[in-house]
Every structure is written in structure tokens, then in C-alpha cells.
């Protein structure tokens, strides 16, 4: 477990920075935004594509806004593009070389706040037709064009590979949430924990969300923040505040002070 010192009681969680897309457009998602004093900046996935080439540069950009040892990176699907699904050890090395923290199935404590962080992926059960969902994903999602699996002769991954990771991540979350913790808990994932968070069903909602409503109601973490969908979403499930924190591509619009304010966990 990683322990960080609590100073301000404020953690900023931002997903889908896609800094390489912003850089290519000659723009910055941060603009003149005031991030304020923070105990941590957590990137909830999709820092850049091509992580071996672009992460070192992107992490230097983040270090302009907050001390390196206060930056935590959770990988999203894009962080595996032109890379490999089973490459977390290499991503961790890239993060460590930049002086920041990599968080995949990781428990971080800041004061009495427990953070549980992982990518999550999905189970392809949204809509109920698993076979049709996996076929649509295989044909239409770039994940299955640009990510490979080193342990399987570097073949392109399929939905069955990311589902396998989802099952592992969900089991890890369930085990961690079952462990007593005296303070509040925040779960940070890239993929969404509720089907309705994916927005209008376009046949690919199964690639963005799974139904973890029962897990949430059973354990009732105080917060569950996620990215991936690039769609605003906020809901309560029992006592759990569930919120999307995506920034998105330059075409999605600039990050606003309002987005920053609603992406902060106060504890």
C-alpha cells in the first residue's frame, strides 16, 4: 500500500486527458484553470496513446502543475494503444522513471481516505447479448486493432482478453472492498460501473460500462469516479456518489473550472 500525506483534503481526479491529441491541436486542456492546492492528481486513464514514446513527455506536462510524487496514473484503454495489454510492468517503469506513481490494482491511502484504483474494462453483458456485443466490439472498437498481447505471440487482442482482465479487476475490487477500512473509500476506474453511465445505447455501450450496481450497494464506497465515456454523468447509488470525470478530445470542448470543481474529492 502506498501512503501519501494529507495536507489539503483535496484530490483531483481527471480522466481522458488525451494530451497527445491536445498537443497536436496546439492546445492545452488546462488553459487558465486554477487547480488549487491538492494532495494528489489522479489520471483516471487515457493519458496518451503510444505510452513508450509519449508518456515521458506527457508526465513532464503534468509535473508543471503538481509535484511528481503527488501524480497517480491509472491506465485506460488508450494507454495500451500501439503497445500491449500485458505491459503493466513496463508502464510502471515509465511512471517510476518520471517520478510519478502507477496504479493498477493498487491501494493508496491519503490520511484516512482509501483509494482503490484499476482500469476495470467491461464484461460485454450490457444489453444481454454477449456474443453480439463481442462481435460488435471486435469489428468497431480500435482497442482490438491497436493493442496486442505479448504472451500470445503479439497477436491483436480480442474482447475475450479484456473481459478476462475485467473479471480479475472486479474480483480484486470486491476483495479490497470487503476488507475493513476505518475511513472513507474512493474507487477510481477508467471504465464505468453502471450501464446508464455509457449514455444512449449505440450498440457499443458494452465497451464502456458494466453493471456493478450490486457490488456498489453491497459495499457502499463513498465515491466511484470514472472516465472513458467522455459524457457527463452523476448519480447516487445508495450512499455512493458516482461521477464521470472525462476531459476528452479537443473537439469535446475545453476543460472548465466547473469540471475541475466537480472532479475533486474532498475528505
Task: Write a structural description.
The structure is a single chain. The protein has a 7-stranded mixed β-sheet with strand order 1-7-8-11-12-14-13. The chain has a 5-stranded mixed β-sheet with strand order 6-4-3-2-15. It has a 3-stranded mixed β-sheet with strand order 5-9-10. It is globular and about 50 Å long. Helix 2 runs parallel beside helix 3 (88-97). It has one domain (2-266): GpdQ, beta-strand dimerisation domain (Transcription Regulator spoIIAA). The chain contains 8 helices and 15 strands. Strand 3 (40-44), helix 2 and strand 4 form a beta-alpha-beta unit. With 267 residues, it is an alpha/beta fold. It is 28% helix and 22% strand.
Summarize the structure.
With 267 residues, the chain is of the alpha/beta class. Helices cover 28% and strands 22% of the residues.
